[in-house]
Specification:
The protein has three helices and five strands. The protein has 111 residues and is an alpha+beta fold. The chain has one domain (2-109). The longest helix has 21 residues, at 2-22.
Length: 111
Amino acid sequence: MFGKMKDMGMAKGVQIGLNQMIKEFGKITKLNLDSTKNSINMDILLEGEKESINLTINKIEVIQYNNTPNLRISEISVSKPWMNIIVKKYLDGRMLPIPPEYQSQVSQFIK
């Protein structure tokens, strides 16, 4: 029970942070974290669209590279087939540097 409450609180913070990053082209309308599975599911309303897309990341890892924590996200799926192709080609399995201001929050979520 405590884990679910922690995930809900963490999800709100992640949603706020990600919304700041994507504000030019969309907004996350729903975000769920599952720290036991290291997964995220979110609905994103993109600018100019009437319906949200669904994005699921089924595997999130923190990888140390050059003494810097990075996220490696994989097993990603998107509700729009053409976006799935782009995500698989350019994002799935890649390492993304974690900005210093978010490093402590990420380490709490990923065990």
